[in-house]
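Whether sequence alone determines local backbone shape is best considered at the level of individual chains. In the encoding step, the backbone of a single protein was reduced to a row of integers, each denoting a local shape. For completeness, the protein is quoted in full, as a sequence line and a line of structure tokens.
***
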Amino acid sequence: MGAVRKTIDFWRAKKSGFAGMGRKGIFFTFIAITIMAVFIIIFTPQSGVSLQKNSQSLKTRIGSVDGYVSDLESSYFETVLRATTFKAVLSLIFYVNSTGSYLTDFDSAFSEVMVTGRINGLPIDSITGKKIMENSTLTDWNNKIISTAKDTLNVNTTITIINVSASQSKPWNIDSRLLVNFTVASNVAEWKKSSAVTATIGIEGLHDPYYLVNTEKAYTNQIKKSTVEFNQWNIEKVREHLRNGSYMYWQNSDAPSFLMRFTDSIGPSGCCGIESFVNPNKITPSDRIESYMDYLFWTHKFAGNCTQLYNITGLWDEFKFFKLDLGHMAKYNITSQYAVKTC
């Protein structure tokens, strides 16, 4: 019996040991699986997160380039056009002053200066002696835009100028218009656009080319808008008008516009005619049988026809020999007490 009991106790102990070892094995196995899972989560590529990051980066890239394209259309081209228009017009005034002659064709001269800085194939700055168009043409500005966009956004920009022109729809402003095609290409997309860009500059302060040519540069006159209302003129305001060399706009007048004064085709402008008085103190000889309204004076509308002219004697104390035709006497409200017939 004793031997049998010992045998039974031995197997019970064995069973108990095996049970302890089983519980420990399951625990260690669970730990190992958990660690493996952590490593798998950490080191396995997260494809969903990567795609999301790439998508956001692509959107940001496209948004940046699209903003650049939008700025080209809404801002950059207009700013460049306005600045270049002013410089081109100023250069053409100096050109007229240097050559002492009118432009044959304003439109072609303006376009050539705007795009290339040349006139009749020659650099206009070399003729005027003024460095106005140097590095300031539309072509120069376009190259600057292309270079800057490449450096900052890494995009390739192509700009093609189709046409550039100037006109007037109001007497005191010049309107310029640029037709341009451009392409912007990046590594993610390409934009192709056609734009009509407009800009406006004022003419006040610019020299009148009409005076430069007709006085052989001896008498210059800068554009200055009169502040007198059309129904407020009188002899003393005419005196101030002469002193200041200012200009007046009358609706439906026969006067030429500012741009027309670059050529020898002086005639009614319709929308934008402006006029000024020729100061007899600034010309030689001072006494001429002419109406001293500028465009009539130099087109000799009343030349030698003294029966249609009046000596404005009310101003002869300061502006001796100043004369006007009857039509302009009426416009400027000069009454008979201040004028007598020239003959």
Notes: The two ends are 171 Å apart (CA to CA).
